[in-house]
Recover the amino acids of this structure.
């Protein structure tokens, strides 16, 4: 499993890769108290989105991949201590642009789905 992108990402908040191969990736994460928004323990959706985005980037797995847009649905709430897995698969590739389908599951339950629109740039996005 050679990872070519997002190598400095915070794995506590964006998950740990378990599979990265051509056009497919899988990442796991355990939700924590630090991710909750209130005293009920509801996990903020941004952490779930971050996990899904990380999986999409790994499915493309290029040093200059960036997110250009997304379409997603949050299907179930999460609380601290739950293990979730994001699975990503490239569904379309055209002229350095990729569509990546991502599903985040808690066991058998799907908690998030989305299509991520990614682009591979000639240079790093912060290079002029």
């Amino acid at each position: 499993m050679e990872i070519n992108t997002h190598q400095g990402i915070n794995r506590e908040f964006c998950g740990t890769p378990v599979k990265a191969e051509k056009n497919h990736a899988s990442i796991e994460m355990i939700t924590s108290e630090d991710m909750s928004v209130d005293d009920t323990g509801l996990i903020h959706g941004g952490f779930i989105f971050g996990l899904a985005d990380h999986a999409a980037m790994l499915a493309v797995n290029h040093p200059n991949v960036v997110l250009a847009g997304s379409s997603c649905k949050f299907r179930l709430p999460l609380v601290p201590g739950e293990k979730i897995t994001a699975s990503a698969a490239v569904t379309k590739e055209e002229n350095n642009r990729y569509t990546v389908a991502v599903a985040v599951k808690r066991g058998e339950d799907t908690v998030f789905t989305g299509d991520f629109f990614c682009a591979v740039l000639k240079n790093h996005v912060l290079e002029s």
About this structure: The chain is about 15% helix and 45% strand. The longest strand covers residues 83-94. The mean pLDDT is 95. The beta strands are 16-21, 24-30, 65-74, 83-94, 97-106, 109-120.
